[in-house]
Specification:
single chain, 288 residues, alpha/beta, Rossmann fold, 2 domains, 7-stranded mixed beta sheet, two-stranded antiparallel ribbon, 11 strands
């Protein structure tokens, strides 16, 4: 390391110059601020008030190796081991997707669709880190949430998050593409899912921080069957949604119309495409 001093401001300046070619000025500063705050508890206001704050040699090494990971395009959320979602920090690693702001919007929609004064049940399919299921359970006063995933490793992450956030979400290992639903013998008021929806041909358009690090199992579908998971989930929902129950999907905007037509063909009523905050079709809703 060739950092001029062990002052935090000098460390940030030194490593910012290394990150600049990949991330630009603003993002480099933001990521270094996240590293400093998450590893050592020094937020931006503290550093302004304490400009002479210093790190120990071992702390400097922690930053050094974290920056090396960022230079490999490893997402900052994997470097610090957590991601902010719906106001809570969720543990993440390479077995689960990093939660996106668009998915926060879907959680907000789900909460708005559920009646606050009634006991309701929700199933999250493909839960990953558990961020959708746990966020709904924490925000709704009378909800019982189940969450399924095919990945044992993803469910282990979800279990850590549920315990840390004092959530009562029930986690179940199940492959939605199988015909064995024996572990679920109930019906739900809402089934919600952010399934894999990126077609293989779109891989060339993706950044390396996603393509090289996030789990392909949770991202990709075949080019010749982009609605693969929507079809399985829709069929499952027919027997596991209550009458009047809601099916809510996050979608690839390229296939919004196709997902809508799938729900209509499966006799879901009031099927509709919904916009995200950027004005793109991002969600589909239907009623059983």
């Amino acid at each position: 390391m060739k950092v001029p001093t062990n002052k935090v401001k000098d460390i940030i300046s030194y490593y910012k110059d290394q990150l600049l070619p990949l991330y630009g000025e603003e993002q480099s500063r933001q990521m270094l601020g996240m590293l400093i705050e998450n590893f050592f508890g020094f937020d931006r206001i503290y550093l302004v008030l304490n400009p002479e704050e210093r790190l120990s040699e071992s702390e400097m090494l922690t930053i050094h190796f974290a920056v090396k990971e960022l230079l490999k395009h490893r997402p900052i959320q994997y470097v610090i081991g957590k991601a902010l979602f719906c106001g809570h920090w969720f543990e993440v690693n390479q077995n689960v997707l990093i939660p996106r702001p668009e998915t926060e919007e879907m959680v907000e929609m789900a909460i708005a669709m559920l009646k606050n004064d009634e006991q309701v049940s929700v199933l999250d399919i493909g839960t990953g880190s558990g961020c959708i299921a746990i966020s709904i359970e924490l925000q709704h006063p009378k909800v019982q949430v189940d969450a399924i995933d095919v990945s044992k490793e993803a469910l282990e992450v979800a279990e850590l998050n549920a315990k840390r956030l004092n959530s009562a979400v029930q986690l179940i290992q199940m492959d939605i593409k199988s015909n064995d639903f024996s572990c679920i013998n109930k019906q739900y008021d809402l089934i919600i899912s952010n399934p894999p929806y990126v077609s293989k041909s779109e891989m060339q358009l993706m950044r390396s921080n996603v393509l090289d690090w996030e789990p392909s199992l949770a991202l990709f579908v075949p080019d010749d069957d982009p609605l693969l998971f929507y079809r399985y989930i829709t069929d499952f929902a027919h027997s596991h949604l209550k009458s009047g129950g809601i099916l809510l999907f996050e979608i690839n905007e390229k296939f919004g119309q196709e997902v809508l037509e799938l729900l209509e063909a499966k006799k879901f009523s009031e099927a509709v495409l919904l916009y995200d905050y950027h004005g793109k079709y991002r969600f589909v809703k239907g009623l059983m």
